[in-house]
Every structure is written in structure tokens, then in C-alpha cells.
Amino acid sequence: MKILAIESSCDETSIAVVEDGKKVLSNVTYTQIDIHKKYGGVVPEVASRHHIEKVTYVLEGALQQANITLDEIDAVAVTKTPGLVGSLMVGINTAKTIALAFNKPLIEVNHIHGHIYANYLTHEFKFPLIALVVSGGHTEIVLMKDHLEFEILGETLDDAVGEAYDKIARVVNVGYPGGPIIDKMASMGKPTYQLPHVKLGKDSYDFSFSGLKSAVINLHNKAQQKGEELNAFDLAASFQDAVVDVLVSKTKRAILEHNCKQVIVAGGVAANKGLRSEMQKMVESLDDVTLTFPPFEYCTDNAAMIGVAAYFQNKKNK
Ligand code: KG4
Ligand code: ZN
Questions:
Q1: Cβ neighbours of 145 (radius 10 Å)
Q2: How far is the CA of 6 from the centre of ligand 2 (A)?
């Protein structure tokens, strides 16, 4: 089954053709990062306008790369929610138009489910499994007992992880998006600053990153006022250490409590080097648990992951 998938929930216009939920025949992404850089974050109105301008070119590219015509696809999939309303609408209208004009079924996909299913491109799922979802908009620990069964065990009460990275990067003025930059800086420093590792009680799977974010920003502001030099690499390493410690320890508890043999990490922050290596160490300390991350190119927003989730939705509804 060949699915044409469309993703436009934030600042990436992405269209893919995915065969049987596994084989990416094409995945073309136009990213607006350079446009939003000067604002230090995504400007929703600007984002929707650029989606409108680029969507037909991206579609053309995706069809060409897959060497397929719209007649030959079996279904159209699109990210329905969550995301920026104006941006989502561009993808949804494109998908509906194609579905209507070419008489194809339309499959509406939840963006977070897409991030989780990005892992399926390279790994089979062994249920029950724990999915750690870490993106710019979401931080969740999810228990999956079967395909498309999502039980949210915990989530962030305030900032998402990626959001905390991006906000800190904006204040300390190191660039946008902050995640990859701070990740790189962290690898060049040592966790020497005392920062809060917020765990919210021993039974909680929820997260809170706003206190940690404020602690980093306050340290930076105070040092500036006093004219003191902070070691930016050590500060980045201390922040990342706190984030990774909280994410990994809660994920480990969820794996043990629910007797899972697989843990998958999903979302843009799944590209984080520190998180990857600490998760690896954590699973090595457990018996027979496999760890999967999506390939780097499928960690951040892309349409291929929507095509995979759509494949399973279609299968289930048959
Ligand atoms: O999943 P995604 O593309 O968009 C949302 O659905 O939110 O994630 C984007 C987020 C941004 O906040 C970005 O800073 C973060 O993922 N990110 C990273 C890394 N690469 C991307 N955060 C930490 N370390 C990274 N290497
Ligand atoms: Zn995303």
C-alpha cells in the first residue's frame, strides 16, 4: 500500500510516499528554520504563509522522487493535530483536495503518533513498550500495549523539553533552534553548575522543566549584571545533565513497572546525543530490553512518520 503523507503542523512543509508503513519511497521537506531564526522562535502567521507558498513544490518533489503519480497512490494521509492551526490547515486542505480529486481515502493522523511510529521505519515494535516522546511541543511517557493503543502515563506540566532548550538558547543568544546547539555545547563542557533535577514525587511520571529553565536563565542574567563570566559549555552540560537524568530515570521506572521489553524514543529531542548515550547505558543495566531511536533525519518533523502511522490506522479500520 502506497500512502502519500503530508505534514505541516509547525515550520516544516514535508511530503512523503511510504510503502506498507516501512519503505520510504520519498520524503521531501522544506524547512523554514532560517526564516524564523531572526525571531528566535516560530511565528505562526509567517509559518502558514510559507507553507502555502511551498506546498505544491514539495508535493511535486515528493512525487518525482518516488517516481509515482497521484493516480497510483492508494491513500492520502495528513497531520490533523496538534500544531499551529494556520499551518495545519494548509496540509489538511492539500490532502483533502487530492483525496477528492483522485478519489482516494483520507487518513487523518495525530502528529505525536507519527513521531512514535518514526521508530517503525527501522525497528519492529514489541508490545508492551514504553515510548518517551520528547519534542518542541510535547514531553510524555506513553505505554503501548498494542499498535495504536496509547496510554499516557505522564506528561509535562509546563514547558516541553525542546521548548526549554529553545528558550534558554534564545536568552543566552546562541541561536535557533536551541536543541542541537546546546547539545553540542554540552558535549564540550562538564556539569559543574548546581541545577534542579525536578522529579515531582517518587511515583510521578509527570515532568516540569520551567523551574530548571528559569534557574539557567537566572544564573545567566545574574552573571551579566555582575559582569562575571559564566562557562557557557559547563552551563549547557549542567542543564542537559538535569534534563537527561529526569527523562531517563522516569523512563526506567515505567519500563520496570509495566514489564516492557522495548523502549522507543520519539520527537526532535530524540536526536540529542546526551539522551541517546544515557538511555543506552540505562537499558544495558536492564535485562533484555531493546532501545530504539528513529534515524536522525526522522527525529524532527517529517511526513514519512505520518505515512507509517497512517498505514497502521488504515489496517486497523479494515
Ligand atoms: O519534533 P520536533 O521537530 O517538533 C515538534 O513537534 O515540536 O522537535 C523540535 C524540537 C526543537 O525544540 C529542537 O530544539 C529540538 O527538537 N531538538 C533538540 C535536538 N535536535 C532538535 N533538542 C535537544 N537536542 C538535540 N540534538
Ligand atoms: Zn513534531
A1: 12
A2: 13
